[in-house]
Design brief:
mainly alpha, Arc Repressor Mutant, subunit A, 2 domains, two-stranded antiparallel ribbon, about 65% helix, about 10% strand
């Protein structure tokens, strides 16, 4: 693999990195600010294109700030991850087996949090 190929990001990876930057910031950011947080920093136009794609996908909203646009996530990172998990689960045939396999990957702390959440959910349903 050449040096150039090793620096290339996988499809969708840059979108994920941009979303991570926006979530971590906790505020709206202009493209130059997003660009400065990425390593290696892609071209400004690339960052702008990614942000526009995220707007088109309704993952990010933008507002005018002077001559530029500032971008911020539509949903929190936790809400976005939960939606992604739900979409994945909806697309599999054996949901029970999929949930079992997922549960097997949880560490002790994560498993305890999940048990508590499920117990609280049962109490609310009663």
């Amino acid at each position: 693999m050449s040096d150039i190929d090793s620096r290339r990001r996988a499809a969708g990876e840059l979108e994920g990195q941009v979303m991570s930057v926006l979530w971590a910031a906790g505020r709206s950011m202009i493209p130059a600010e997003v660009q400065a947080e990425l390593d290696p920093a892609p071209a400004y136009n690339t960052v702008q294109t990614i942000l526009i794609r995220l707007v088109d996908k309704q993952l990010v909203r933008r507002r005018r700030v002077g001559r530029a646009h500032a971008y911020e996530p539509v949903r929190s990172e936790a809400d976005a991850a939960a939606a992604q998990l739900r979409a994945t689960l909806s697309g599999v045939g054996d949901r029970g087996l999929t949930l079992q396999r997922f549960a097997e990957t949880l560490d002790d702390v994560e498993a305890q949090v999940l048990r508590q959440l499920l117990a609280e959910d049962r109490r609310v349903d009663r």
